[in-house]
Amino acid sequence: MTSTTRPPDTHGRPTCPTPAVRRRTRSQARTALAFLAPALLALLVLRLLPAGLAVVDSLRHHSLVDGVTRFVGLDNYGDLFGDPQFWQSVRVTLLFSVIVNPLQVLCALGLAVLFNRRFKGARFWRSLVFAPIAVPPAVSAVIFGILYRPEGPLNALLGVFGLPSQPFLTSPTQALYALIVLMSWVGVGYWMTFLIAGLQDIPQETYDAAAMDGANAWQRFVHVTLPLLRRPLAFVLVADTVSNFLVFAPVQLLTGGGPEGSTNLLMYDVFRRAYSVGDIHYAQAEVVLLVALTLAVVAVQYRLMQGKGEE
């Protein structure tokens, strides 16, 4: 059988691949491209193309007077930056994210550590915590809408303990926190599964070695679990941040951005401008800014996680 590679030259340096090797390499590349083509096509059609169209549309304005769409450059962005309602939406979204992201990640981490242990019924409780993610967000919003009613189960429970009824979704000071509870109930179990997978990848030998060195349970968690769980934690934090920037259905079904704009998250504000106000190009400009804000926050988070890992 003849070899498909040429032997090294007299100085021990490898020579160029033979024609047979080059043909095999090209064949493998074509096969790989054929398998990747559907995913690349979906990425282009469903992600990159709409993103490009959104940027182009954000530079236009449609006049309701003469029905003509004109190129206006950055005027839509200038109007947004001068709109107090837009800045209120930004503040509400950032406040929502600053509270809900650490809350979900910490709860998911605590539950992952708990349910990663072997005890009777662990799988059942793990499945129970994960179950809310299998329910559509709109259904979860309806369920919590019933719970938050003035005559609903939560106020009935408060009455049992002699506490006054709470307005929840009708209060400007409570509505956002009511949504945070809802989104945490939905998301914690989902992120918990990623962290459990990360915990199960940590070799038991590292815990045994730390225990032999006299480390207690807390020290093993801080010095063994957290450093080795850094990558799954970084993924969960970034993915959770992106997910919470795009919250829409609960706001639309429960509060409509109110009361007094206290739950007017950016994603809902985009919907309101596009379909209630009817200015699709203005809404596209807000979409671009929302994506830019999301990328900026994610970049900061990723940089901080990388910094901690290098230390």
Overview of this protein structure:
By secondary structure, the protein is mainly α. A hairpin with a 6-residue loop joins strand 1 and strand 2. Mean pLDDT is 86; it is low at 1-5. The chain starts with 18 loop residues before the first helix and ends with a helix. The chain is built from 13 helices and two strands, in the order H-E-E-H-H-H-H-H-H-H-H-H-H-H-H. It has helices at 19-57, 75-81, 84-115, 122-130, 137-147, 153-160, 175-200, 204-212, 217-228, 230-245, 249-255, 266-277, 280-310, and strands at residues 60-62, 69-71. The chain has a two-stranded antiparallel sheet. Helix 1 packs across helix 13, helix 3 runs parallel beside helix 7 (175-200) and helix 7 (175-200) runs antiparallel to helix 10 (230-245). The chain has one domain: MetI-like (MetI-like fold, Orthogonal Bundle), CATH 1.10.3720.10. The protein is flat.
Summarize the topology.
Elements: H1 19-57, E1 60-62, E2 69-71, H2 75-81, H3 84-115, H4 122-130, H5 137-147, H6 153-160, H7 175-200, H8 204-212, H9 217-228, H10 230-245, H11 249-255, H12 266-277, H13 280-310
Antiparallel strand pairs: 1-2
